[in-house]
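Priority: medium. Attachment 1 of 2:
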């Protein structure tokens, strides 16, 4: 049986269920559709969907689409694709905008209860009257407006009578509160902007804190899990839930019932956990957007991007990401995780799951002179050294092979185990080769190695047991397919590219060597693999057939990760 996971949130959920506070746990993942999901989101996804799964509850996908200016249907679709790729299934798909009419009625309710007022101060005037951490703010001159006047003005805001920014609806809480979020925060603002879901139906939009709290309440979310920066907003969250009080005002839900949308209004509890940060990475959507728009990467799915689209194209598996997140666990302490930890998790996952193939990235011709030119043969190779169930494959072999240039040294450094002039090396699965001749062109470049294959040294033969220091990989020149290999590395050279204290921007820390393309060969079998197939190219690294550009006739493989950590600081 899988071991039961524990962390402070799961403990709360477990207690709540044990004490009968909820019939079932209900969570939601609430992305704002203003960009693509990134690695940081995986923690929120894994927490919300994971907890729902573990406790036999459910998790909604809810777009927090209260800021129409920045939102786009492109992101709405991509978020669903990413969640599906991660293997999560949402219970209901909702939008905060599905609740605009309920949120509106809730606001009128607050006005009637004397808990909200229409304020005519400009944004600047509001800022100036908010006070500071040590000084209380001052009440708006509009704070004591009567209910009827407030209702009239709010309805006219809704009718589109006033220009952007001319008025807001504000909660009437406490301008002297030590928590700035409680100093009569805005609940609604005027914005004559088309919305990706509701079109031009609304000239006013609810503020995030209000919309989020009430949306959670509408959906009957039991545990509203979010990141630490919302900790200070929790009192406002609770204020909105308690004062709109859907459980006492079921009439507010009528617009939903009329549309046949089920709802289980309840009192959600917000719990915060720390954000995931990775070194050598920027994770804010705003910065990722800038990288794309400034052409510093090829797009949201550039394999160097920490977006799910990028990381998927890079060759990461959903399982590796989930394992990475699960191992880190949940805490209330913000910290930055070593990029190496992520890469090691990927190596571990790919080692177990990928079949082995041979690929040569920097080809050097090797001719076996004691085999005829028309020699054609196929050799049998295990697809995985530790997993028999992955079976075997046939690999073409002839007298002309490609080997990697770096497996030959005319003047070997100390400790060299690979091929040298006159030396012997084992050709993976084919036997022991002795290099007799090094052929050079006019400019002195080595263009070909020639030599003999010991006919008694085939795998399984007695002669194969001779002690030979090195084994190298190869591909058969007659059948191998010319291939483009894209070699990726970290996008930034600085451990903390976000640090701008030295006046530098993350743009100044871009790694100039984060992408390199080389041309070589793969064995024919790998060329024919479907896009997104992952392999370990023996001795070279883990690669994935590019999701967009790979074709059997023109293979393109992205390096997901090297076999070992080679990052130099
Ligand atoms: P960004 O700052 O990158 O724009 P965001 O928090 O504004 O991120 P949302 O779309 O609002 O992005 O995020 C959806 C959910 O994912 C929220 O609950 C948010 O707290 C969570 N989330 C976002 N980034 C991280 C992160 N780095 N680690 C953990 N959770 C995150
Ligand atoms: Mg957000
Ligand atoms: Mg954001």
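Attachment 2 of 2:
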């Amino acid at each position: 049986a899988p071991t039961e996971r524990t962390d402070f949130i799961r403990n709360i959920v477990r207690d709540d269920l044990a004490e009968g506070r909820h019939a079932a746990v209900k969570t939601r993942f609430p992305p704002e559709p203003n960009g693509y999901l990134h690695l940081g989101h995986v923690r929120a996804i894994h927490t919300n969907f994971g907890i729902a799964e573990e406790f036999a509850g459910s998790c909604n996908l809810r777009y927090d689409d209260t800021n129409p200016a920045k939102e786009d249907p492109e992101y709405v679709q991509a978020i669903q694709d990413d969640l599906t790729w991660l293997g999560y299934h949402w219970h209901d798909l909702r939008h905060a905008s599905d609740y605009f009419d309920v949120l509106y009625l809730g606001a009128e309710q607050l006005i009637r209860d004397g808990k909200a007022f229409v304020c005519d101060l400009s944004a600047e005037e509001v800022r100036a009257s908010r006070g500071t951490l040590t000084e209380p703010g001052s009440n708006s001159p509009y704070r004591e407006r009567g209910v009827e006047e407030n209702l009239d003005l709010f309805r006219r805001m809704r009718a589109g009578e006033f220009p952007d920014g001319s008025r807001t609806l504000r909660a009437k809480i406490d301008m002297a509160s030590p928590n700035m979020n409680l100093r009569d925060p805005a609940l609604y603002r005027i914005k004559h902007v088309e919305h990706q879901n509701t079109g031009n139906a609304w000239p006013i939009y609810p503020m995030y804190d209000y919309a989020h709290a009430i949306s959670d309440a509408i959906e009957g979310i039991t545990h509203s899990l979010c990141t630490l920066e919302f900790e200070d907003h929790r009192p406002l969250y609770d204020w909105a839930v308690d004062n709109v009080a859907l459980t006492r005002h079921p009439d507010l839900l009528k617009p939903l019932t009329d549309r046949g949308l089920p709802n289980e209004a309840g009192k959600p509890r917000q719990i915060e956990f720390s954000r995931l940060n990775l070194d050598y990475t920027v994770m804010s959507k705003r910065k990722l957007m800038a990288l794309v728009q400034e052409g510093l990467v090829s797009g949201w799915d550039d394999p160097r991007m920490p977006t799910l689209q990028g990381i998927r194209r890079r060759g990461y598996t959903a399982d590796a990401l989930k394992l990475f997140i699960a191992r880190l666990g949940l805490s209330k302490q913000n910290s930055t995780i070593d990029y190496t930890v992520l890469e090691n998790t990927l190596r571990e996952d790919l080692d177990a799951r990928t079949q082995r193939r041979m690929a040569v990235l920097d080809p050097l011709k090797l001719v076996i002179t004691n085999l005829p030119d028309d020699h054609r043969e196929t050799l049998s190779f295990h697809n995985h050294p530790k997993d028999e169930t992955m079976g075997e494959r046939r690999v073409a072999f002839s007298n002309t092979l490609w080997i990697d240039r770096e497996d030959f040294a005319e003047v070997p450094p100390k400790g060299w185990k690979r091929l040298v002039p006159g030396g012997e090396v084992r050709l993976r699965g084919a036997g022991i080769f002795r290099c007799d001749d090094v052929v050079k062109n006019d400019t002195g470049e080595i263009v070909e190695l020639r030599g003999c294959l010991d006919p008694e040294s085939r795998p399984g033969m007695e002669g194969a047991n001779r002690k030979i220091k090195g084994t190298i990989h190869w591909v058969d020149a007659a059948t191998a397919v010319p291939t483009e290999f894209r070699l990726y590395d970290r996008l930034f050279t600085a451990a903390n590219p976000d640090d701008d204290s030295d006046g530098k921007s993350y743009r100044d820390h871009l790694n100039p060597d984060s992408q390199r393309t080389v041309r070589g060969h793969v064995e024919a079998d790998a060329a024919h693999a479907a896009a997104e197939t992952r392999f370990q190219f023996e001795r070279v690294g883990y690669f994935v057939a590019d999701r967009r550009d790979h074709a059997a006739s023109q293979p393109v493989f992205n390096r997901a990760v090297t076999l070992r950590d080679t990052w130099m600081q």
